[in-house]
Design goal:
two-stranded antiparallel ribbon; 142 residues; 56% helix; mainly alpha; 7 helices; single chain
């Protein structure tokens, strides 16, 4: 576990009330505030990544897309030295976005590995039940 520190801050009363409502789905107010601050730090350090609520909790996505950062992680499993240029070309993303998500994946490999395992553990029938409108597609490796 990484080192932690205590931080005491004053927030407007309405913000505190919002945090308490927000925390009902995420544990304590302290845990929710920690998650919010950590995500803000990561968005600042990795502008190509944003966070969204999913069935499995908060997950990193490539900014402005429907692609989870874990999918890029999955591409690096067979090609650990995969270049951002190849990712940008494959997904038709700008170079900065591909480089940014690749940097994120390399900075948080354990988190991305867990999300990748969650993605790959989902079988076609479970996915079809959750998202009945989806059509199957063949995905090729980079």
């Amino acid at each position: 576990m990484s080192a932690t520190a205590t931080l005491s801050i004053r927030v407007p009363l309405e913000t505190r009330r919002w945090l308490e409502r927000f925390a009902k789905r995420r544990g304590s107010a302290g845990m929710a505030a920690t998650r919010i601050l950590e995500e803000a730090r990561r968005r600042e350090d990795f502008p190509a990544v944003e966070f969204r609520d999913t069935r499995l909790g908060r997950v990193a996505y490539v900014q402005g897309t429907r692609v989870q950062a874990a999918l890029v992680y999955g591409q690096t499993l067979d090609a650990p030295t995969l270049a951002a240029e190849k990712i940008a070309e494959s997904f038709a993303w700008p170079q900065w976005k591909a480089a940014g998500v690749l940097a994120y994946v390399r900075e948080f490999p354990e988190e991305c590995r867990q999300e990748w395992e969650d993605l790959t553990a989902c079988d076609a029938q479970a996915l079809k039940r959750s998202l009945p409108h989806l059509e199957p597609r063949e995905i090729t490796s980079l």
